[in-house]
Write a structure and sequence with these properties.
- The longest helix has 24 residues, at 108-131.
- By secondary structure, the chain is of the alpha/beta class.
- The chain has a 7-stranded parallel sheet, sandwiched between helices.
- The chain has a single domain, classed as Rossmann fold.
- It has helices spanning 19-29, 40-45, 48-55, 67-81, 95-98, 108-131, 159-181, 196-199, 204-214, 222-233, 258-268, and strands at residues 7-11, 33-37, 58-59, 84-89, 135-145, 184-190, 244-247.
- The protein has 11 helices and 7 strands.
- Strand 1, helix 1 (19-29) and strand 2 form a beta-alpha-beta unit.
- It binds nicotinamide-adenine-dinucleotide.
Length: 269
Amino acid sequence: MILKGKKGIIFGALDTKSIAWKVAELAHKEGAEFILTNAPIALRMGTINELAAKTSSEVIPCDVSLDADMSNLIDKAIEKFGKLDFVLHSIGMSLNVRKKNPYTDLNYDFMHKTLDISSISFHRLMQNLYQKDAMNDWGSILGLTYIAAQRVFPDYNEMAEAKSLLESFARSFGYHFGKAKKVRVNTISQSPTMTTAGSGVGGFDAFYTYADKMSPLGNASAEACAEYCISMFSDYTRYVTMQNLFHDGGFSYTGISSDLMDAISNSEK
Ligand SMILES: NC(=O)c1ccc[n+]([C@@H]2O[C@H](COP(=O)([O-])OP(=O)(O)OC[C@H]3O[C@@H](n4cnc5c(N)ncnc54)[C@H](O)[C@@H]3O)[C@@H](O)[C@H]2O)c1
């Protein structure tokens, strides 16, 4: 029960495959209370009410690209819980990826929307929390990201820039939140994971298998990611802030693996 007595908000649980869904299940098991939120359309299409019942949580709609929705959500959270101890931003959406526009022929209206939903929303969230003084001392705010922010994965498209911006917001706001309110802000850079957002990326199966073969520990699952998130919400990680934390089975520091060497050698025979 390492989150006993802690209160929070979890963004982004769409269905049972969502990383946020696993985080919510585990947070509940570890004694936390939280609000679940997602965009109104996702609430209609997904199965969040099932999760809400299972975790005794309230669901409050919020399209994270709308200032009014975000402000309303944070007001309601304060009304319900007083101050918060943890917040998970588990949101990603690219209109250009959805429309299969190649990186060299992007629509900029779509790109604005992508950045607004996937990255600027993280700032919008933190600015609301900060200005409304909604976080307890030593609270923890987490965003989820992918290594395409540091290295080129061509099919990840404009989401690479979205994740770079997200990680930068974690560092910059982490400074201000730490200094003023002793709140930590981090991003977790997760292995490819079989979810709705993940499998929307072109060539995802190859992506997934490549990462799995490259990582000495194999790809980290959504459940393992949830465990890491819970540890980052707990009091055992109080001095970790402004970091991008790789949760990827060792992928980020591996140049080549014997599995891939063997696969390449075999294909050349
Ligand atoms: N799946 C992967 O391979 C992978 C790898 C690394 C990082 N991530 C990141 O993990 C996070 C969670 O994604 P997931 O893989 O669990 O997929 P998911 O599709 O289950 O979750 C994405 C969520 O974003 C929500 N969302 C989209 N637009 C929104 C809006 N306007 N307002 C509010 N919510 C909105 C969706 O409704 C959905 O719940 C994302 O940031 C994603 O980029 C995923």
